Each structure stands twice: as C-alpha cells, then as structure tokens.
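Input sequence (104 aa), recorded before submission:
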Amino acid sequence: MGGGPASASQGYVRPTYGVDAAIRYEFLKNKTASLSLNVNDIFKTRRSDIHSESTLFTQDAYRIRDQRVFRINFNWRFGKFDPSLFKRKNLKGEREGTNIDMGQ
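Predicted structure, token format:
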C-alpha cells in the first residue's frame, strides 16, 4: 500500500510502506522440489500511523506492525501432472448438468 494520506471520518491515515522479498531454488530431477526463503518487512518500516481530531480532542495513534518474519518452505511435486485429466472431468460434469437441465 502506498500513496498519500487516506481520509478517515475525523482525520486521516498516513500511508504504509514496506519491502518483502523471497528467493526460490528448484532442484531434483525435472525440478520437482523447491526450497524458498521469504522475509517480510526487511527494513522494519511497516507501521500504522493515524491522526484524528474534532473540537474536543486530537489523537495520534502510532503502531508498529508484526515483527519481521522469516519463512522457509519446502515444496515437493510428485507424480505425473496430466492437465487433460482435469479437462475430461470438467466435460463429464458439464454433460451431466446439461442432461439434468433438460429433464433427462
């Protein structure tokens, strides 16, 4: 999210900025496995800053979002992927639906 301040009912919300990054390494035969490293808010700049005011009060709320989080993911694709399998199942369902709609 970025840009200028967003309007609120009694004030505005200042823009929020942050930088996330990820890297992925694929390995094994035919690249069937992958390992990825993800990190959010690298520079620890993601925070919430809200300004509200009326005739009776002025309020500034400032909150740092969740801590920086690192994630390691392992993905293993096994078996043979056959896209025509999904197409055949979908066509079968469409034919059955047509027969029901026609009262057959």
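Checked by second reader. The chain has one domain: 6-78.
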